[in-house]
Model the fold of this input.
Amino acid sequence: MPNKESNIKNLKSEIDRLQDEISKIEGEEKKKQKSVKTLFRWQSFSRAYTKRGTKWFLYTFLLVATIILILLFVREFFIIAPVLALAFVAYILATVPPDVIGNEITTHGVNTGGHTYIWDELDDFWIVEKGSFTTLYVDTFVQWPRRLIILINKHDQEKVKELLARYIPYRELPKTTWLDSVADLLSSGFHKLTS
Done:
């Protein structure tokens, strides 16, 4: 019996010692964890938006009508539905103004539109000025979205570039695919036509 009691006392003292060590280790880990600090914060529209005039709507309608007539003539009835869907999306994007969202760069990553992307999820970035908009593009490693597109104020461009360059690489020349090139060509051609 006395041997059992001494073993229990030894085990209790060992448990107390281990609990003290665990508490010390947890305290050190809490000290090591850095708090999230906001480095820069701004608000912007959720997407680029330009108010369209009646001329733009007229040309868009004529273009869609012409495409549909051609598709009817060549009996491609199934392609008419996607053309109408794209026309509807273009109409909605041209008439509904975007929301204003909050964006921030923190010590842990980028927050935009209520979503947080940590630095390990971000690949590289570049900034493009097109028309009256300055746009920040950030490629990601996550499945969706593969690229963040965030509007920034022109006078904040250097500050944003400096802060992001501390954590991820900056590209002087933007990444473009053939799809980006075609979209720019169509956009500039349509803009010239409607102006």
Notes: Helices lie at 2-32, 54-73, 77-95, 157-165, 178-194.
